[in-house]
Amino acid sequence: MTGGLEVVRAGALTTVQDQGRGGWAHLGVGRAGALDAPAYRLANRLVGNAESAAALETTVTGCAVRAVATGGFVVAVVGGAVCRVTVDGRAAAWGAPVRVPEGAVLEAGPAVSGLRSYLAFAGGVAVDPVLGSRSADLLSGLGPAPLREGDVLPLGRPGRSCPPVPDAVPWPGAAPAGLVLPVRPGPRHTWFTQTALRTLTTAVYRVSDRSNRIGLRLDGPALERARGDELPSEGVVLGAVQVPADGRPVVFLNDHPTTGGYPVIGVVPERALAGAARVGPGADVRFVLG
Amino acid sequence: MSTPAFSVLRMLPVGTDALLVECASGEQAEALYAELLRRRADGELPAVRDMVPAARTVLLDGITYPGGGPGPQRFAADIASWRVPELRRAPGDEVEIPVVYDGPDLADVAEAWGVEVAEVARTHAETAFRVAFCGFAPGFGYLTGLPEHLRVPRRATPRTRVGAGAVALAGPYTGVYPRDSPGGWQLIGRMPEPGTLWDPAREPAALLVPGTRVRFVPVPVPPGARR
């Protein structure tokens, strides 16, 4: 046993995430993984982990964990969404390594800016992997369940030496006031009217409170279809902009279904999706061709 | 004698590194998927993270050629030159799934088929099925094999809970629910021990992987196990 974390406050939705699992879509298993990949990777680097180590991803309200059986202390970093960080109630650094002594509680407060904070720990969260990944997939139910108070998560053995840490590092993307997502025409863009295609790249959409790890659901003008027939189920990619029956676009995020029966009007490149992980309900979203 | 072969219908780029290949029928999509698996095993394909067969398409996601470049366009040009052999129905291993035919929608299905209730189980168990593709949930296979005239619609109102192991029909497909979930398909029976459908510790994790031949075997109601 190299120590663990006891969940003191689970928060609205806190999950274990790593880089996700690829190569299983033909079995109905999606990719999952940290939504804000750059923030997740940086948090890992700052505690001396491989970029693929599992970390905690919070949603809006943060979380609190107690270091148990660490034999001294554990090094942690809270990054991603900006929030107040405390160790046993005392203010600690956000976005930089902090020492959490044995028995102390590390708390990531509610997000002040952004939506999802990442808590990385030296050694990584060492729950059992499923199909090569420790990520929770909320659509398929694979991987560890969302954290609940009282859960104890094992930690891995920290690397022998932490890399030297610079005094300050630039964290990716503070939450933009309005999100601009580049989009390319999707495989079924011809299923939509010319007006719909123009609307997609000119209208201002708003993030719906029904958004989650499966998709960024948007409120705004409906996108009208040029044909009414049903689309037989087909494979869909991360970043696909699918248009369900109500005409409001959904940008598929990491826990998206592997196949879908609604036409995909556009595709947002994977590198642009971290921005979608940082905006909450009510935020403005625009699409630009590119 | 030449082997019957076909060309794909169209190729649709999906973002920067994926390609959706569309076929004229589900049968041809299954044949294309089999051909892709064969060529991948023979080392003839570029790196592709996911190959996802579906009703009439195969999605190729995460295409990378050594040295980079526009993967989907290059792969599309390659596939356009293929003559895909039709799916061979070689006899081989078959997965047998035991079923208690006592589903709540048996009578509705019998009426739609215009037969007695007992005939539904008989017909279903006599049909040679094949897993066309997976989706909906890990380990849920869409099985084809029922003739066109036996297609049934989904239920008008989906159930909020369908038990693990439920054997169901919708459209051209038969499926077995690997775990409890909501569902809109017509339930005709249940697999007594559905745990084998999905086991992440096994390779492959799914019992019903695309291309698998499947036969349903009627079994009596286990004593005391009636739900």
Automatic annotation (TrEMBL), chain A:
Keywords: ATP-binding, Hydrolase, Nucleotide-binding
SMART domains: AHS2
InterPro entries listed in its UniProt record: CT_A_B, Cyclophilin-like_dom_sf, PxpC
Domain of life (superkingdom): Bacteria
Signal sequence segment: none
Pfam (any one): CT_A_B
GO molecular function ontology, one term from the record: ATP binding
Domain Carboxyltransferase: 26-289
Protein name, entry field: Allophanate hydrolase
Native source species: Streptomyces fulvorobeus
From TrEMBL, chain B:
GO molecular function annotations of the record: ATP binding; hydrolase activity
Keywords: ATP-binding, Hydrolase, Nucleotide-binding
Every Carboxyltransferase domain range: 9-208
Classification via Pfam families: CT_C_D (PF02682)
Signal peptide start and end residues: none
InterPro entries from the UniProt entry: CT_C_D, Cyclophilin-like_dom_sf, PxpB
Organism: Streptomyces fulvorobeus
Tree of life domain: Bacteria
Protein name per UniProt: Allophanate hydrolase
